[in-house]
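Hello forum,

I keep getting stuck at the same step: I have a sequence, I want structure tokens, and every attempt I make locally crashes halfway through. Rather than fight my setup again tonight, could one of you with a working pipeline run this one for me? It's a single chain of 535 residues.
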Amino acid sequence: MLSRLVSMGHRVVLIVDNCGIDLHRKLAAKIASSNCLLSVITVEYDINDDELQDTDIFKLEAASSDLIEKMLESRYPAIAPPSRHVIARFSEGNSRVAFALAETAKNGESLARLKDTDLFERLFHQQKAPSAELLDAAKACALLYSFDGETLDGSESELSPLASLAGQSADHLHKHVAELHRRQLVQKRSKWRAILPHALANRLAKRALEDIPIQRIEAAIINRSSARMLRSFSRRIGYLHDDEHAVALAAKWFAVGGLLEQLGKLNTLGEEIFENVAPVNPAATLAFIEEAAEKHEDWFFSEQNRNKVQILRAVRSLAYESAKFERCAALLQRFALNEAPGARESTVDPLKSLFSLYLSGTHASAAQRSALVNTLLKSSIAAEQELGLTLLGEMLKTTHFTSHHSFEFGAWKRDFGLHPTSGDQVRDWYMQVIEMGRAAEASSSGLSGRVRRVMANQVAGLLRIGMFDEVIALARAFTENSGWPEGWIGVRNAMRRGNGKISEVAFKKLEELEERLRPREALQKPRASLVASGA
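Reply #2:
Ran it on my machine without issues. Output:
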């Protein structure tokens, strides 16, 4: 083709993708030896920094995570933002890796699995002769999220135990790590190294767990009493929830005599390991927390639990699945009810965050959440009633949905939780909550006034999203008894904010509702004045 193009004498640019260095040299020599108008552009993953005559070399650096996320959003709009963020992090700026992970994620629950064998071969071998020793070295190093790549000897050496897993000497492993760095598969910062992109490292780590006896891995990493190596190893394991060896290892750590047996009294290292491996087997993690809570019920939900913050974060993430919601909510509820006055970390907030319409981090239905709130409201215990009122107000909220909680959980595919998109779905949510609140108000005279105030606080928002008939029905039920001056204030607020912004028909309904709720009795007017003034 090149000879034909040269003979034509036209100005042509020939572009050759996946072009090895030898082919590039032949093409460049052919062009240089002929007086032609032809130029050639070759694209290759690795050119070994060779100085090529009559050739300009341009190196494309990895894309930023933000750019990768935007590309994923454009090509894979069905993948939720939390999952796109994880894929971008695992791909380390390599768009081909990111797209391969996204393709896998479309039909599975793992964001870490690089199933594309051709892409793996291209990334790892880069058209060089396959080397079993280099692959063994990479597998051993990939077991750690990062490792010390310079210290060869002594108790602080991490190359020595990794080399033993690879069946090599520390010197040989050091040489292979250097070669992986030249292939841009190892990141280097000071003495620290890391196999990258992490999608490649995760695949290599899974191969290592298959090929290396787990007893050897435990002897080299776990039993060496190296906190840094163990922390790094647990972080890698946390991304391998679809690997049976990683699942078995996490179960061993949860078992009697395991690394994490003393949940609630773990030191800082134990806390980090627990958070790292919690995503490996969600069902086992939840059962482990419940077992620890039952075994140490006298202090587990109190300030004596040194790992409370980590447990709360894990339980909130485990509540993502609707099938686990009730069990997770029950744990969070017990923490909230046992919160000491003036506690630094709120135990109510993680539970409360699960009850908003959007950004809840759970796919539990409105019925599931309403059932728990209803149980709390009907309790004879004042603290439980107060918690129920807090959650009722959260479920009724119609605007300003925010969250400071993380929606990522290891390498699991995640989104922001239940996200009603149609008007009917949104209406169904609030109808269930309103009916639940109305029933709770009617069932307890002692709770009636507080339920009314909580629901009145959200009247303006409910009217703003078009829940006219539902609020009118609620107002009719409340006014049959002792009136609802708090609701009247809410309607007046909705009228003030909506004047000129809503249709005449809707505004007429608001006027009729305001007339119905307007205080008339001598005792209601002072109450309305106090409510209006914020007293």
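Residues 65-113 form one domain. If your local run keeps crashing, start a new thread with the error log.
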